[in-house]
Design a protein that fits this description.
2 copies of one chain form a homodimer. By secondary structure, chain A is of the alpha/beta class. Chain A folds into 2 domains: about 250 residues, Aspartate Aminotransferase, domain 2; about 90 residues, Aspartate Aminotransferase, domain 1, CATH 3.90.1150. The first copy, chain A, contains 13 helices and 11 strands. In chain A, the strands form 3 sheets. Chain A has a 5-stranded parallel beta sheet with strand order 3-2-4-5-6, sandwiched between helices. The first copy, chain A, has a 4-stranded antiparallel beta sheet with strand order 8-9-11-10. A two-stranded antiparallel sheet of chain A has the order 1-7. In chain A, helix 7 packs parallel to helix 8, helix 11 crosses helix 13 and helix 12 packs across helix 13. The longest helix of chain A has about 35 residues. Chain A starts with a helix and ends with a helix. Chains A and B meet through helix 1, helix 4, helix 5, helix 6 and strand 10 of A and helix 1, helix 4, helix 5, helix 6 and strand 10 of B.
């Protein structure tokens, strides 16, 4: 949607909202529908090709407004996450369907998605341990639990363990900054020998520093063997898996007893928000952790099994109607449009990579798989820190650094919807100009 | 703002956004400002009288756009929560000011505000205990910690304790459904005698079932004496304290060593979102709990003390620019406009109360202080359950029940911005009509 269409559609939407406010008293106080009404009103998969905005707005009145905020908010979310699951070619067991045990939930942020999975895993571990040592208190068991994640994992994983009050160990990575099975296995064996209870692994597909991919085909069987919950943090790379050429990076998801998957940062440019999703095979695993049913939250379909109460799947009680954005985006772009967008972003990163590789003063520091290019000037960390300072002070582009194997590395990320080849070329020209100036300075 | 003005302003805003998108390349990549730039550009208090929408929009370009998303998002939030603090006549120590140690943060939801305060209190308690028993591990201390809240408290308080992995005890209430000092004191003494460590009290001002007010003037000194963190959950009643006649309900907040305050549900009709705020006297108390600083989140003002990093104050990492809504609402209504709105809502509740009191078949079940009326038909719980069923099935109004002293009670809540006396009269007529029909049925 270009700015011109945005003006037109935006103003139509303002009129729609104003009309709603003016006539709200004519609308029913709450809907007269059976649980599950929504699924049969819309297709079971996202369209391949874009649909028109008019058609989507027509469906607002047909599909959403009769179900108002509730149950439409919940039911659209369930179906949209099924659409997304199918776009990702997830195994059938992760799809809610009409009677599935799996399903997804939109979490507020990726940090909350990870935290929620860790808390659910903690609860499951305590119940399991108590079946064979019933005299142990919950808190005693907490003190023995140990979680694992990559030394390259996002800080939110360590923070989740701090909040959950459990130990976390950082698994060293291989030369590609990925966690391998043998490193995890070794740590788990050590910890078991020390009387600890390994219960949770957070693997990352697309790490923050360098977009590395932990080897989940190796980690999965270890998790299964040790009764550990495996959560996959794909907050950055997740959405790229809707392209068949990137889908193999998710291979290994099939075999696990429990998998959380969050992510879809890549699509956030469409959504105006990131869409962290927790996806589980057995919904009772995640619901069981913190279910509370005071009288003021009871409703008549509570025990029917027909209704999904997303409040049990998350930290907050209230929730926003974020699946509406998924619905609009999936339909306005179509699967092919979304794939094209991801491919374009990756192509722009590859374009930047080849500019770097063609300049012998620079080096590429990690494989470029998606939209992130890790690079640096050959030379000292200080030299690269000075280059970044020059870039920051000139305020033309914005780069965030990282540390890889003790080296200070610059990160070039494609993330705006409107980025084109000319921006890549301008950015590189700017960087090489500043590099030229830097290398002219007397102390270099 | 009526629907007509909403149409006009909404369309202007669409144009503003479209223009931003079209010309984004002309804007600086990031702002060239010193930390703290925003405070001197706007008044230090909310206006008493409404300001014009034009004036506020002019300030968007003058105050916000030069500071873009960051630091404007953070700095406006700090100042808006100071405005709110002054509207609430909070003690100086809760105001951030230019060098204060206090301050506020907008949390995602009330549940998160409570959770965050409990986690911060847990962290503080562990550090305190470790100063005199340095051999105890964190998890050992967790197992001894005990939190307290009212038996009438919202389910999110118990859920916070479950997430934090600490024990929670429910304090019985008096005949007004309020927690009193002696009940808390008794429990604390019992628990200390049993070797436990009391560390946290969540008091409620305006409980969910009946809008009861815990006696914080009695609870505060006990918390201080026992080194317990006192959090005040005023999620419902909080915003009414901007009216001098309701402010005494918050008396007792002054004396505490640490106080969290969340709430402002009442204002949510303006905000289109609830605004749960955590407010602390010592910001290090809340920041200390989960501070993490990986390289990709470092910035040059990190250690200067000039910058507030709200990510340390909350569960998620990212955050929305919600203080913009506060800024618009405070200015478009003015303090007097907001007070008038709250008074109108309370008056409507009082109107409903007198209708109930005039009908001898009914009784009022709890003092009507703000916008909630708890009432029931004199008679059995079954009778009242049947009345609620009739009300629900007729779909004219929506009531949520509660249980008070074992009695099934109906709750009538004023919560829409546009509710008028005629809606109250219609609702009561509807309820009495259904009551008439119910009492005609053969089994009554």
């Amino acid at each position: 949607m270009d700015a011109e269409e945005f003006r037109r559609r935006g103003k139509e939407m303002i009129d729609y909202v104003a009309e709603y406010l003016e006539n709200v008293e004519q609308r029913p106080v709450y809907p007269d529908l059976e649980p599950g009404y929504l699924r049969s009103l819309i297709p079971s998969e996202a369209p391949l090709e874009p649909e028109s905005y008019e058609d989507i707005m027509k469906d607002m009145e047909r599909v959403i407004m009769p179900g108002a905020a509730s149950p439409a908010c919940t039911e659209l979310e369930t179906v949209m996450l099924d659409w997304l699951g199918k776009m990702l070619q997830l195994p059938e067991s992760f799809i809610a369907g009409t009677d599935g045990q799996g399903g997804g939930v939109i979490q507020g942020t990726a940090s909350e998605a990870t935290l929620m999975s860790l808390l659910a895993a903690r609860c499951k571990a305590v119940r399991r341990v108590q079946t064979y040592t019933s005299d142990k208190s919950e808190v005693e068991i907490f003190s023995q639990l140990v979680a694992y994640t990559s030394e390259q994992a996002h800080s939110s994983v360590e923070r989740a363990a701090l909040i959950g009050g459990v130990m976390i160990r950082k698994v060293p990575t291989d030369s590609n900054y990925a966690v391998r099975g043998d490193s995890l296995k070794k740590m788990v064996e050590e910890d078991k020998a020390a009387g600890l209870i390994p219960f949770y692994v957070c693997a990352t597909l697309g790490t923050t520093p360098s977009c590395a991919f932990d080897q989940i085909t190796e980690l999965g069987p270890i998790c299964n063997g040790e009764n550990m919950w495996m959560h996959i943090d794909a907050a950055y790379a997740g959405s790229a898996f809707i392209c068949p050429e990137f889908r193999p990076l998710l291979n290994g998801i099939e075999g696990h007893s429990t998998v959380g998957l969050n992510g879809f940062w890549y699509l956030k440019i469409f959504f105006c928000l990131s869409t962290p999703v927790n996806r589980v095979k057995k919904r009772t695993d995640i619901i069981g952790a913190f279910k509370m049913d005071p009288l003021y939250l009871k409703h008549e379909n509570q025990e029917s099994g027909l209704v999904t109460d997303y409040r049990h799947w998350q930290i907050p009680l209230g929730r926003r109607f974020r699946s509406l954005k998924l619905w609009f985006v999936f339909r306005m772009y179509g699967l092919q449009g979304l794939q094209a967008h991801i491919r374009k972003q990756v192509a722009l990163a590859k374009e930047f990579e080849s500019l770097v590789r063609a300049d012998k003063r620079f080096e590429i520091c990690a494989e470029v798989v998606l939209g992130l290019v890790c690079f640096r000037l050959k030379g000292s960390n200080e030299l690269n820190q000075n280059l970044l300072k020059k870039i920051t002070n000139s305020r033309e582009i914005h780069l965030v650094p990282c540390q890889l194997s003790g080296r200070f590395v610059l990160r070039f990320v494609i993330c705006a919807r409107t980025t084109e080849s000319r921006h890549i070329q301008q950015a590189w020209q700017h960087i090489t100009q500043l590099t030229f100036e830097l290398l002219q300075e007397p102390n270099h």
